[in-house]
Amino acid sequence: MAEFYLRTESIKQSDIKRLSVVNSQDINLIQALKSSEPCLLEGSRGTGKSFLMKVSEIEIEEENPNFIPVFVAFNKSSLINTDDGLQFYHWMLAKTLKALTNKLRKKGITVSDYSAGLLSNDESDNPDLIESNLKEIVKIFEESYKGQSSVDISSLPDIEDVKEAIENICNENSIERIYFFFDEAAHVFRPEPLKKQITTN
């Protein structure tokens, strides 16, 4: 009996390529997503944007071990309700760094004490502790809909420190490029949070 999937999130990563059926336009989009230039993929819900990003992520990993793709899903933004005036920016930063540190750990990539310090606002040089702290920050933000709450963001780094940390991680591990695939950004963000995300990063 055929199995139907309504969302890409329901498909195992190992099944993505097997289920992939692409046409010439899809191939062009995948090539654009795999390029070194920023790419904004627009389209209505259910047209396969997430799936194409997942295919691109897999192909990048298959084609060059020195390229690291990081997939970040922003599908829980509507749950955020805190007293932080920059709550979306801080949540997006924590979510992105959590996805990055998780991907590096899965790849067995070493993060030096210096880079770890940059990613934690100099509060820790332990990569495992940093990932745990980021996970906790993301969790508090995403559960804030249950009742407005305050979030301790003191461990979140400045964006310039993030850039320096990523550059150091790349140099220390012979990584040529890190890709970030941001899913659900344009659909779920109101104009102001989306503007902050684009202009800050």
Automatic annotation (TrEMBL):
It comes from the Bacteria. SUPFAM superfamilies: P-loop containing nucleoside triphosphate hydrolases (SSF52540). Gene3D superfamilies: P-loop containing nucleotide triphosphate hydrolases (3.40.50.300). This is Uncharacterized protein.
